[in-house]
Amino acid sequence: MKKIISLILVFISIIACSTVPITGRQRINIVSDSEILPASFAQYEGFLKENKVSSDAEMTNVIQTVGMNISRAVDQFMRANGMVNEANSYRWEFNLIDDSTVNAWCMPGGKVVFYTGILPVCANTDGIAAVMGHEVAHAFAKHGQERMTTAYGQQLGGIAVALGTAGQNTESQILWNTIYGVGSQVGMLAYSRTHETEADKLGMVFMIMAGYNPEEAIQVWVRMSEKGGSSQPEFLSTHPSNETRIQNLRAYLPTAIAYANKFNAQNEVDSKN
């Protein structure tokens, strides 16, 4: 049975492997949009009913305007690169929630929430675009679907561990399950950091495509760092440290500018033809 599960995992990794556009990272995803998007849209609607949508019309308009500009750039990129069906599956929506939490997120399919608590960190429209680009990038790269795929793999891995230690004494079974559990947890955390780093890069490209200043993506994390954060070691964190993000974004800035400018120039030529 253990060998069968291993073969299944190998088979899945072969048939479900694809490449994230722009970054070129290889990913494994067995979760289709038809499986995840209806649930995503329903959860988003439920969230809005249970949380206080901001009554600040001016700031809500800013969030929605930036969101539409970023999503329009992403939509143009997808359609220009043969991802028409995928582009059609998005149901973009942007809402500001009256909550002091310093956070924002985007569910699969383009459902975005900004909390009022993150606005001081954003500081300006370009800062909002930096955070917006990052969150939209999670949906674009299908990080939610990829994490679900990984969870399925973990479940199968847990079964394999149980079967493999079935003939051993109780102490050995506890030891191996503990090792698997810790290794699995840290593996998932590292995987999440991979997603965060990728979303930082993609988000920077998208905000440039939409006409915003990419330098502000770096400054957002400078300001976040000034607010202080967890002292937990980075290898046990779901996100890269603020300093790591700042360094990575500074290093990636020339690549992001070159990529976005090249796309925008080609897109302008195509629109005239």
Can you describe what's shown?
This protein has 273 residues and is mainly alpha-helical. The protein has one domain (2-272). It is built from 10 helices and 5 strands; from the N terminus they run αββαααβββαααααα. It has helices at 2-15, 33-50, 57-80, 84-89, 119-122, 125-140, 143-164, 170-209, 215-226, 242-272, and strands at 17-19, 26-28, 93-97, 104-107, 111-115. A 3-stranded mixed sheet has the order 3-5-4, with helices on both faces. It has a two-stranded antiparallel ribbon with strand order 1-2. A hairpin with a 3-residue loop joins strand 4 (104-107) and strand 5. It starts with a helix and ends with a helix.
Count of separate structural domains: 1
Structural class: mainly alpha
- As a percent range, the share of strand residues is 5-15%
Cα(first) to Cα(last) distance is 59 Å
User: Helix amount, in percent?
Assistant: 55-70%
Number of helical regions:
10
State the oligomer: single chain
Largest β-sheet summary = 3 strands, mixed
What best-fitting shape do the alpha-carbon axes yield?
A: globular
Order of the strands making up the biggest sheet: 3-5-4
Q: Mean pLDDT, rounded to whole units?
A: 82
Secondary structure elements and pairings:
Blueprint: H1 2-15, E1 17-19, E2 26-28, H2 33-50, H3 57-80, H4 84-89, E3 93-97, E4 104-107, E5 111-115, H5 119-122, H6 125-140, H7 143-164, H8 170-209, H9 215-226, H10 242-272
Parallel strand pairs: 3-5
Antiparallel strand pairs: 1-2, 4-5
Helix pairs in contact: 1-7, 3-6, 6-8, 6-9, 7-8, 8-10, 9-10
